Amino acid sequence: MSLRKPKSETAKLRETVASLPPRVADWTPEQRRQFTTQSDRATREENGVSQPDERR
After folding, report:
1. Span 5-24, mean pLDDT?
2. Which of these, 2, 9, 3, lies nearest to 52 by C-alpha position?
3. pLDDT at 56 over 70
4. Comparing C-alpha atoms, which of 16, 20, 9, 15 is closest to residue 49?
5. Do residues 27 and 21 touch, judged by C-beta distance below 8 A?
6. Which member of 24, 26, 45, 54 has the greatest number of CB atoms within 10 A?
7. Using CA atoms, how far apart are residues 6 and 53, in angstroms rounded to an integer?
8. What b-and-e string marks burial along 4-37, b requiring 16 or more CB atoms within 10 Å of the CB?
9. CA 48, CA 41: separation in Å to the nearest integer?
């Protein structure tokens, strides 16, 4: 049995984008939220930030 490394947030973002309609104008509000949430996670991962900024 091999141990698999968990998928990166960037890999998950690629999957999210692949599942969406090609034109952003065709995305539903839920699809936009899904993309934004995953994009934010991938950006934080790439920048080495573990949690969203709570100072708003």
Report:
1. 93
2. 9
3. no
4. 9
5. yes
6. 45
7. 24
8. eeeeebeeebeebeeeeeeeeeeeeeeeeebbee
9. 10
Distance in angstroms (rounded) separating the CA atoms of residues 9 and 35? 12
Q: What is the pLDDT of residue 28?
A: 97
Map tokens 């991938």 to a residue: 42
Whether the CB-CB separation of 18 and 54 falls below 8 Å is answered with no
- Tokens 């699809």 map to which residue? 31
Higher pLDDT, 4 or 11: 11
